[in-house]
Design brief:
This protein has about 625 residues and is α/β, with parallel strands linked by helices. The protein has 20 helices and eleven strands. The protein folds into three domains: about 180 residues, Growth Hormone, Chain: A (Up-down Bundle); about 190 residues; about 230 residues, Vaccinia Virus protein VP39 (Rossmann fold, 3-Layer(aba) Sandwich). It has a seven-stranded mixed sheet. The longest helix is centred in the N-terminal third of the chain and has 32 residues.
């Protein structure tokens, strides 16, 4: 009896620790890889495909490990050779998606594979779905602990070391558990295969929906762990409620489905909530919670006997991998907007109404599909239109208004140009003569060399004189193509313009000093903050490229983040003077309200406790609440 209690404690400890490590390493590694790929939300989307894909492989391994505990122990022990985990340095010029996947596989692939197999393997030895709920509860704790306790207080290098030590402890616990385990029986699994399509479908729908919701939120605000963790935590919470204690009540969620769909569709129109971040995020999370509860509740109602859960979990993992692959890989390749979000919502409509309101016959399924397709077409319909381009770095749209042409990404406008031929060279938006950067570049001076991080539509090239050189750094090839083909600023510039298509920091770290008179950092105006461009190490790179009397100007306008104090703190800590300049809008001249931090002139360095570094960034502190 005593040995049985020890074994049960070891089971629970092993499963809980594996879940903690699984869901701590995801935001940790994704945050480390952000700087290598421009700090864009696409990094999170690809990472959130990689982890479910490896989870699927781990669940497949569990089908063998559950019957052969000694083999499972040997695989876990062998994985220790991959410690401590580190991010390999790969060629940044390759396709960002495949480079990112290779970096993830090289850093965490094998340990994550071993961790992924733990829950179904141990549960097959223990014979209870309670362990699945325990695993999800531990995952939820890890997700919430990371942005609020771990990320703000531990340097990233320390995080990697601590995780590696904890993984070694996990392996020791798993080996002990496996040696005490009785191999699981494989009899009876074949009878469950008829349920696989429904298992996979009910797993894929909420997986696609949470990732689509997270993608929309992060592209409008910032690709930071917290804004990905909130939808993922909501998703995990529904799994806990449905698999432990049976909190799912069909009669209740039957009536919550319609308002949940309405909330999701309302939130997807960002102009409805762009003045209130809590409102938008609340609508998204509320709709996601109801839809995920329905899918996971119906899934839990159809689970097989707890003594043979491996194939059930394998089907769930397959659905999760398919849902995340649809959002992360397929959607950016075939859609020019967030169509995957509407597809996921339509799938929720079909599943929810099909399972809760009508008998799921073939005829009713066809009728539901027709109605859902009509709703989808209505949701997608937009009057007017323009060029829309989507790639790994986001969605860009060129729109023609009565007086101007503009480039936008969601509600964020990245540049405006007048149609009137006599006004096409007028600087506009955040770069007009009324703004801080307009005052700096508009001053007559000797031939200048100007570096600009972020091309936009090339508005700042309007300030170039005949002897000037304006060198732009732009990571997104689509932006360069649009600026050159659909706007006139680059073509009409009097000076010489150069465009470097690469991450600015990586390019400048390799270049010899460019001796810039002015260096403009214009990569933060969209609220999706590439934090690697706003650290002490990044500023040291900038100052190496500036003349001693040069000016560093950072555009930090944002609806949801206040980056001006961060920029000022870093400059002061390195011995430079900094001031924040804000201008008022002038609508009839297409002048936007803009916030610029201007760094010029040396002073004594003063340590700043909250200055960001490559090893520690606290973006939550600067989000406007």
């Amino acid at each position: 009896m005593y040995d049985r209690k020890i074994a049960r404690v070891a089971h629970i400890f092993t499963v809980s620790l594996s879940a903690l490590l699984l869901f701590l390493v995801q935001p940790m590694l994704a945050g480390l890889l952000l700087p290598r790929h421009g700090g864009v939300a696409g990094v999170w989307a690809v990472a959130m495909f990689f982890f479910p894909a490896v989870l699927l492989a781990g669940y497949a391994h569990a089908s063998v490990a559950s019957r052969k505990p000694k083999v499972a122990a040997a695989v876990a022990l062998a994985s220790l050779i991959f410690l401590p985990i580190r991010v390999p340095a790969l060629d940044g010029q390759a396709h960002p998606v495949w480079t990112l996947l290779a970096e993830l596989m090289g850093s965490i692939g094998v340990p994550f594979f071993v961790l992924s197999s733990t829950s179904p393997t141990v549960q097959s030895w223990f014979g209870s779905y309670r362990l699945y709920a325990v695993s999800n509860a531990a995952s939820l704790v890890a997700l919430l602990a990371y942005p609020f306790a771990i990320e703000p207080n531990l340097a990233r290098s320390t995080q990697l070391t601590a995780w590696s030590v904890a993984y070694a402890v996990y392996v020791a616990s798993f080996v002990y558990t496996s040696w005490k385990a009785a191999p699981a029986s494989s009899s009876g699994d074949e009878a469950d295969t008829a349920d696989w399509p429904l298992w996979i479908g009910l797993s894929a729908i909420p997986a696609a929906l949470w990732l689509a919701v997270a993608s929309q939120i992060s592209q409008s605000v910032a690709p930071v762990p917290l804004l990905w963790i909130l939808p993922l935590a909501t998703y995990l919470l529904t799994l806990i409620l449905c698999f432990e204690g049976n909190w799912y009540r069909p009669w209740l969620f039957k009536w919550l489905l319609t308002p949940a769909i309405a909330a999701l569709m309302f939130a997807s129109k960002q102009h409805h909530w762009n003045t209130s971040l809590p409102l938008g995020v609340g609508l998204f999370l509320g709709g996601l919670f109801v839809c995920a509860m329905i899918c996971h509740g119906e899934l839990a109602a159809r689970k097989p006997h707890a003594a043979r859960p491996v194939r059930f979990y394998l089907a769930m993992a397959c659905g999760g991998a398919l849902g995340t692959a649809f959002v992360s890989l397929l959607a950016p390749a075939v859609f020019s907007d967030h169509t995957e979000f509407h597809v996921a919502v339509v799938a929720c409509v079909v599943a929810g109404f099909g399972l809760l309101f009508v008998k799921l016959t073939r005829g009713n399924l066809v009728r539901l599909t027709v109605v859902a397709a009509a709703a989808f077409a209505y949701a997608q319909y937009e009057q007017g239109g323009g060029l829309r381009v989507r790639n790994f770095y986001g969605i860009l749209e060129v729109q023609d208004k009565p007086d101007v042409r503009l480039l936008s990404n969601g509600t964020i406008i990245h540049g405006v140009q007048f149609h009137d031929p006599s006004r096409t060279r007028f600087p506009t938006a955040y770069y007009a003569t009324e703004t801080a950067i307009g005052q700096i570049l508009g001053k007559a001076s000797a031939p200048r060399r100007v570096g600009i991080v972020g091309l936009g539509i090339g508005t700042l090239s309007a300030y170039a004189n005949e002897q000037d050189t304006y060198r732009f750094y732009e990571i997104n090839p689509a932006v360069v193509d649009i600026a050159q083909k659909h706007f006139l600023f680059l073509r009409q510039s009097k000076g010489r313009t150069e465009v470097v298509i690469e991450d600015a920091r990586l390019a400048m770290e390799r270049e010899q000093s460019q001796n810039y008179d002015v260096l403009v950092i214009d990569a933060f105006s969209g609220d999706a903050v590439p934090t690697h461009l706003l650290t002490r190490e990044a500023f040291q790179v900038y100052f190496r490229h500036l003349k001693p009397d040069g000016v560093l100007a950072l555009h930090v306008t944002g609806k949801y983040v206040n980056l001006a104090p961060v920029a000022e703190s870093i400059a002061v800590s390195l011995g430079w003077q900094a001031r924040t300049i804000v201008n008022s809008p002038v609508p009839d001249k297409q002048v936007f309200a803009a916030t610029w931090v201007v760094v010029q002139g040396r002073t004594d360095p003063r340590p700043q406790a909250h200055a960001w570094t490559d090893d520690r960034v606290a973006l939550w502190d600067v989000i406007r609440r």
